[in-house]
Write a structure and sequence with these properties.
By secondary structure, the chain is mainly beta. The chain contains 1 helix and 17 strands. The two termini are 28 Å apart.
Length: 196
Amino acid sequence: LSPYQYSRCLNSNMVVYVSKSGSDQTGDGTEGNPYLTIQKAVDSIPKNLNGYSATVTIGPGEYPENINLVGYCGGRLILLGSSVQNMPKVNSIFLKDSIGVYIDTIELTNSGAGGSSDIMFWGSYCSKVTLIRSRLNPKGTGKYIGINSNSNIYIRNTEFNGLKTAVNLNEGAIGSIVTCTGSNNDTLASASGAVI
């Protein structure tokens, strides 16, 4: 049983829009009236996806946010950037207790996932997580992806630059890393009590 109480369920596929010209006060998440922040868009989506997909379409620009994706299940939650050439830039992403999260065409530029000073992308107690066509390009040093607590992640066509350990898996995590590139990383991947 999920530890989360679901007061709302998704009843059809949903698309929510985010733009640097949007507003969290007057926006409603539609294409013509988008939200300003990614977290506001995510929070507008019911956690029980009820077999449907919810897509957050993010326009180009810098979003100095630490995105929290906690308790989403029963469908697919997608964060979709505008284009590979003009990826939206986000500080970090934290996932917990979520199933079916798909991150596509996002650039992570800082840390702060789950309150950590060195994790850019952190998954805990998650399954069916995909990171694709994205980029980790930290402003500082010693940053990494952390996947733990029996989570599983599929990383494909993603670029890692200047990371301490690009992907660090532990505590029963399972990771698949396919067709990824990068430079100036101390270690591409490490596992402790996990499988790569």
